[in-house]
Amino acid sequence: MIEVHELTKRYGDKTAVDGLSFTVRPGQVTGFLGPNGAGKTTTLRLILGLDTPTSGAATVSGVRFADHPRGLRHVGALLDAHHVHPGRSAEAHLRALARSNGIAARRVGEVLEEVGLTEAARRRVGGFSLGMKQRLGIATALLGDPPVLMFDEPINGMDPEGVMWVRRLFRRLAAEGRTVFLSSHLMTEMENTADQLVVIGRGQLVAAEPVREFAARSTRRSVLVRTPQAAELTAVLVAAGAEVEPDGHAGSEGLSVTGLAAERIGALAFDNRVMLHELTTRSASLEEAFMELTADRVEYLAGQSR
Amino acid sequence: MSTVTSLPSRAAAATAGAAAAGTRSRFTDLVAAEWIKLWSLRSTWWTAVVAILVPWGAAAAAATADYDNWPNYGPRQQAAPHLFAVHDSWPLEGYLVIMLAAGALGALALAGEYGSGLIRTTTVAVPARGSVVLAKAVVQAGVWTVVGWITALGSYGIAQWILSGRHATISLGYSGVPRALVAAAMIAPVCALIGLGIGALVRHAGGAIGILTFVVLLLPQFFSLDKQWSADIRHLFPVSAFQRLTEIWTAQAQPGYYPATVAESWPVYLAWPVLAVAAAVWIVRRRDV
Question: How far is A53 from chain B (nearest CA, A)?
Answer without folding.
Answer: 10
